[in-house]
């Protein structure tokens, strides 16, 4: 009988699905979560929920010496990390953009530059700059995409060497982009996205900040892609 469980882990800055052994103590779990969340072991308070939609926890993992199995941790449950000393941790530093100096440029000035994506598309006649061919129309035929919402997936875009994993949260047309294109909305396991499911003031799905992204279906592989365990290599040594 397997002693492994897959649970959701969430903190002020992270949200991901991870696999742990029921024999692992609460203290050992906190040590692993410190590297994932940036919250020190002594500042973590762990609450157990039956699911992410439950308003109140069913247990508090309040004994560091007890194993996870003692608290009845099971597949699909959620463990929420509360930071009781945020001033001494990294909490909020990855999602608070209020202190980030922003570079702003007008659309007119952006259009004049020759070192931008827009200039590249214009030079290479890509997208809306492509030359029309016989039979072209303003509306592209709708793409047929066999991707189900809720599926685990892996995303890799040609110009991005990093593979990203997460859950499909939206499949369909959007108010942005060309008509007829089917976009796939993904909630990444880590904060490597661009938004929280809102694009141009339109909400397509809900996820933590910087975990959401829209990609073309060709870049999405659906399958049994568990969250990448940053400790796997360390544990195999």
From TrEMBL:
Cellular component terms per the entry's GO annotation: cell cortex; cytosol; microtubule plus-end; nucleus
GO terms of biological process kind: cytoplasmic microtubule organization; post-chaperonin tubulin folding pathway; tubulin complex assembly
* Major site of localization recorded for this protein: cytoplasm
Coiled-coil region(s) at which residues?
A: none
Q: Among its keywords, does the record have Membrane? A: no
Q: Which UniProt keywords apply?
A: Chaperone, Cytoplasm
Keyword set includes Nucleotide-binding: no
* Subcellular location field: Cytoplasm
CAP-Gly domain location = 183-216
GO MF term set: alpha-tubulin binding; microtubule plus-end binding
Q: What family does the database annotate?
A: Belongs to the TBCB family.
The name under which this protein is listed is CAP-Gly domain-containing protein
Can you name the source organism? Botryobasidium botryosum (strain FD-172 SS1)
């Amino acid at each position: 009988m397997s002693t492994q469980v897959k649970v959701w882990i969430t903190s002020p800055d992270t949200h991901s699905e991870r696999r742990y052994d029921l024999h692992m103590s609460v203290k050992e779990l906190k040590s692993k979560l410190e590297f994932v969340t940036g919250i020190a072991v002594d500042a973590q308070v762990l609450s157990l929920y039956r699911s992410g939609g439950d308003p109140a926890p069913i247990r508090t993992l309040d004994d560091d010496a007890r194993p996870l199995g003692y608290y009845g941790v099971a597949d699909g449950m959620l463990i929420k990390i509360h930071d009781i000393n945020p001033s001494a941790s990294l909490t909020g530093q990855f999602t608070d953009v209020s202190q980030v100096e922003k570079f702003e440029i007008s659309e007119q000035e952006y259009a004049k530059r020759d070192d931008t994506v827009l200039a590249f598309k214009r030079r290479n006649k890509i997208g809306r700059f492509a030359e029309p061919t016989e039979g072209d129309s303003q509306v592209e035929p709708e793409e047929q995409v066999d991707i189900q919402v809720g599926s685990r997936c892996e995303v890799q875009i040609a110009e991005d060497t990093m593979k990203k994993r997460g859950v499909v949260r939206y499949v369909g047309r959007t108010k942005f982009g060309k008509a007829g294109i089917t976009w796939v909305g993904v909630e990444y396991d880590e904060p490597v996205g661009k938004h929280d499911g809102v694009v141009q003031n339109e909400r397509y799905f809900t996820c933590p900040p910087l975990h959401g992204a829209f990609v073309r279906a060709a870049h999405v592989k659906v399958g049994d892609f568990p969250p990448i365990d940053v400790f796997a290599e360390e544990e195999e040594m």
